[in-house]
Write a structure and sequence with these properties.
Length: 124
Amino acid sequence: MYNFKDVLILLNQGYSHRYISSIQHISRDRLRYISSYIEAHKLDYYELVKLSNVELEAILFPKKERESIFEEPNIEELVLELKKKGVTMKLLWEEYKKDCINRDKIYYQYSSFRKKFAEFTRVH
């Protein structure tokens, strides 16, 4: 794994992408992307070098949030429902599925529904 700071210093000093690629083990395409990104966003090399590798990666390669195509279940409400006598996880999923179908929404399969539920309860 290359060090962003070293790459930025070499780019700022005017070394060729071929040279930087060979000593830092980074692709020339990635170097071109970094150079053009810095140029397009008018970023200052001297300010960038002060940041950590994690911060630099977040700036240069921001994560794109993907919107889920699935209808998210209201887990908080479901936790309360599950506490009621006679209510099972399968029953909650079937109600969620029926509601999604009635509203022309895409629903999670039972296994994914359970994973979402387990993840929520683990965190909370």
